[in-house]
Amino acid sequence: MKTRLTFNIKLIRSIITQYRQSHNRPQNDRSIIDEALNLFAPKQAPKNTSNYKPSILSSVAYGPVSEQYQTKITREPQDVDAFKVRTDFSTGRLVNFLDVVSLPRDMLDLNNKILKSTDSEFRQIIGEIRDQEQLVYIFKFLYLQDKLNLSKLTTIVLNKNLRNLSLLPFDLKHPEDSMLNWPALDYTKLRVTLLRKFQTMHKPLHIVKNLEQSFDHDYLPSMRSKELPQFYERTIWKYYFEYVSHMNKHKDESYFIHELNDLYHSFTIWESSKLKSLPISTEILKVHKSMNRLQQLFFKICSQESVNRLINSQLQKNKYSDLLNVLKKISINYKFYSFGELEDTSIETRATYYMVIDSLEKLLVHKIVPFAKGEDVSELVSELNEIKKIITKFEASDDIHENNWDDKLVLLSSFLK
After folding, report:
1. Are 410 and 403 contacting, i.e. CB atoms less than 8 angstroms apart?
2. What superkingdom heads the lineage (predicted)?
C-alpha cells in the first residue's frame, strides 16, 4: 500500500513537471493539478444492456420502441461537471496531502503524538517548536484530519515563530471558506485572535482593516448580546481604542459607556484601557449610580489623582504599570461587574467580598498611601472601613485591623478554593 501511494505521488509530480515543460506554464498555475487529477478520473463505464426482446404489450402501452428509447435518453441526467466540481474542491487538500505524506519519519511520529494529546499537552508541544515549516505542517495535518478546532488553531497561529500566514492552507481572514464547519461564533473569535497576531507581526494596517471590516456588523453585536467571553471583548476594545477610535473621535470610551449603558461592558472597557483610567472611572461613576458601595469605592480609587500620577509615572518609565495591573487583576479575577448588594448573606458572595476588601486594603496601605506623601486618601480608607463593617456586622468601635477580621478572611476565602 505504501509503495503504491509513493508511486502515485511521484506519478502526479512527474506529470505536472512534464506538462509545465511542454506548455511553458507558470509554476504556480493550480489548474495544472486539476488537469493532472483528471487523468485519474474514472472512465464512464459502458452500459450493460440486455438483449432486446420485442413485446406486443409494451408497444401497445408505451408506443414504438424508438420512442421509448428516445424518451429514456432525453430523461437521463446530464451530470457533466460533477467530477470537475469535486476535483476543484479537493485540489487544495491534495496539495496539502502531498506535503504531509512526504514528511520525514520523525514528523509523522510527532503527528501521531499530537492526535493523542490533550489541550494542555498540545500547547506545550507547539510552544517548544521554533521552526515555521514544522508549524505549517502540523496545521495542515490537523486540517486534513478534520481535527483543527479553534483552540488548536489559536495555539499554532499565536506561536511567534509562525511569521508567514500565507503558508497556511486557507486564508485566515476569510475562515468561513475553509469548510471547517465551526459554530459561527468561533469564526468571530478567530478574527479577534488575529488582532493579537497582527500586533506581534507589527502590522498595524492589518489591525485597522480587521476592525473596519468586522467591528460594526460582527464584533459590536456579539459584545452587545454578551455572546463573546470577556477576554475577547477586552481584546476588541483594546485595539479599537488604540487604532481606530481616534479616527472616529465621537466614538470613544465615554460614547460606548453611554451607548451600551451596561456595567458589564463598562468594566470591560475600563479593564482594556491603559492611558485613560481616570476619565473612564469618572465617567462610570456618573453613569452607573446604582453600583454598590464596594464597586463605587473601586472606581473612586481609580479616579484618585495620586493613583493616576503613579500609573502615568510607571508607564513612562517601563511602558508598564504595576499598580494598574494590580487594579485590573482585582477587577477581572473577582468579576467586579457581577456584585450585588453588600448585605448578601450567601457564603460564596461574602467570601468574595472578604477577598476583595483584603486586596484593596493591601493596595491602599502598601502602594497608594506611601506614594501619596501626605495627600488626603483618608476618605478612601474610611470608606473601606465602613464597607468592612457592613459585611462583617462589626460594631462601630471595632478597628479595621482586628484579629477576628483575619480569622474571618481565612475561613471564608477557603470557600473560593
Report:
1. no
2. Eukaryota
The position carrying cell 476592525 is 211
CB-CB contact of 158 with 150 (8 Å) = no
Spell out the domain ranges in the chain: 286-417
- Given CA atoms 266, 271, 276, 281 in this order, what sign does their dihedral have? positive
- Cell triple for 176: 468561513
Q: Buried b vs exposed e over 8-46: b needs ≥16 C-beta within 10 Å?
A: eeeebeebbeeeeeeeeeeeeeeebbeebbeeeeeeeee
Q: State the cell numbers at 195.
A: 488582532
84-112 pLDDT, tens digit per residue, is 333 334 445 554 455 545 555 556 677 78
Nearest to 29 by CA among 17, 45, 44, 11: 17
Cell triple for residue 101? 505524506
Angle at 135 between CA 132 and CA 141, to 5 degrees: 145
CA 251 to chain CA centroid, nearest Å: 24
Are 107 and 134 in contact, with CB atoms under 8 Å apart?
A: yes
| pLDDT tens per residue, range 114-136 | 888 999 999 999 999 999 999 99
| pTM reported for the whole predicted model | 0.72
3-state secondary structure of 262: coil
Give first-to-last CA distance, the chain, whole Å. 55
DSSP secondary structure letter of residue 229: -
Helix spans in 102-203 (H)? 105-116, 119-127, 132-144, 150-157, 184-200
Q: Please give the Cα distance from 291 to 262 (Å, whole number).
A: 11
